[in-house]
Amino acid sequence: MTSTTLAPSRALQLKASTADVHDNIDKSIMDKDPFANTENYIQFLTLQYYFLNDVSTLYDHSELNMVIENLAARRRLNMLEQDFQDLEYPVPASAFTSLISNETDLATALGWLYVVEGSKVGAAMLGKQAQARLLLTKKYGARYLSGPGAGRGSDWRHLVQLIDSIELNDTQERALINGARQAFTRFQLFQAHVYS
Fold it and tell me: Domain with 152 in it: what CATH number?
């Protein structure tokens, strides 16, 4: 009797290839205790805004839109803007030039999108903390953490299935991982800027 060892899915390989930087970011965010008070929460929102504003072109990316049906509906930038408005705080102005454009190759853009969309998965737990500690809700001050619509889980599963099933050559496989790592590194840049 022979046994066959199945290789992990591409999405699982992507997760493993970015685990170090992802874990570092998660830990450093929670070390700042973003729900301790409104000031900390505003810093947290500012960090999220810099990043989401920076990657907003992903949702207009022509190749991504050909493979992801509801891509534009997944945006959360406007929710962040409403959270700032709720809290009577000006939307941050960013002087950073985005690294992503419509010319970014599909595999790299998909790696970036994996990071941006993956952040929604943990947002539900953060939203509960915002409500418990700051009395903020999906209708006031914590819209961003609630995410668009009710399909956060199904949207994520759909993206993971796409990553697993899309046809990529070896160069594109590397570009997918590099794109995800670039996105995490970019987030760290904004983190250093906000918490400097």
Answer: 1.20.910.10
The amino acid present at 28, given as its one-letter code, is S
Q: Which of helix, strand or coil describes residue 101?
A: coil
- Which distant-in-sequence residues (6+ apart) come within 8 Å of 51 by Cβ? 116, 186, 187, 190
Q: How far apart are CA 188 and CA 194, in angstroms?
A: 10
When divided into structural domains, the chain yields a total of: 1
Range of the domain at 143: 24-194
Successive 10-residue mean pLDDT values, the chain, 196 residues: 59 95 95 97 97 96 93 92 97 91 97 95 88 95 78 81 95 98 97 94
